[in-house]
Amino acid sequence: MGLLKEFKEFALKGNMVDLAVGVIIGAAFGGVVKSLVEDVMMPPLGMLMGGVDFSNKVITLKHGDWDPTNKVWIHPPTLLRYGQFINVMINFLIVAIAVFMVIKMMNMAKRKPNAVPDAPTTKDCPRCTSTIPIGANKCPQCTADI
User: Fold this and answer.
1) Pairing mode, if any, of strands 122-124 and 59-62?
2) Which CATH number characterizes residue 85's domain?
3) What 8-state DSSP symbol labels residue 117?
4) SS3 label, residue 126
5) In this structure, are 110 and 124 located in the same domain?
6) Taking a C-beta distance cutoff of 8 angstroms, is the pair 90, 98 a contact?
7) Which end of the chain has fewer CB atoms within 10 angstroms, the N or the C?
8) Which range marks the domain in which residue 98 is found?
């Protein structure tokens, strides 16, 4: 019975719920970024590069054996899919920039706008340069009048 109670407390903690919401939002954001890269950014980029579709760019390291009668690979080819890697890297860069911008905006929101610095509470004695309270008329170190 104690184990069930501990699990309930753990699962219903505020930070656990925040984490779950973050994971769900992150997954949805990942889908948006994937679509942005594949559907919006890559077609014009491919067009600028002469109609290149990066997702189909591969280097064949080893040719495979195809059975035309059964229409199956006996030994599939070994492919280096560098175009897919380029898509994933662009995807990563967009996510990294977006996360950076979100954190930057959150940090800006946390700052106090036009925060006035606190008034000084101490000053230096002109004779001995020791630090004394701002309202002092006599230095406690050298007894000079201030």
Assistant:
1) unpaired
2) 1.10.1200.120
3) P
4) coil
5) no
6) no
7) N
8) 2-115
The CA distance from 33 to 111, in Å, is: 29
> In which residue are the tokens 């004394």 written?
132
Q: Are residues 84 and 137 in the same domain?
A: no
Q: Are residues 134 and 103 in the same domain?
A: no
Instruction: Round to whole Å and give the CA distance between 123 and 133.
Output: 6
List, for residues 78-110, the tens digit of each pLDDT value: 999 998 898 888 878 887 887 788 788 888 888
Name the one residue in this structure whose structure tokens are 């919006």.
Answer: 40
Give CA–CA dist 4/98, Å, rounded.
39
Read off the tokens for 135.
Answer: 């309202």
In tens, the pLDDT along 27-65 reads 888 888 778 877 887 788 778 877 767 778 899 999 999
Helices (H), the chain: 2-11, 14-35, 42-48, 82-110
| Number of structural domains the chain divides into | 2
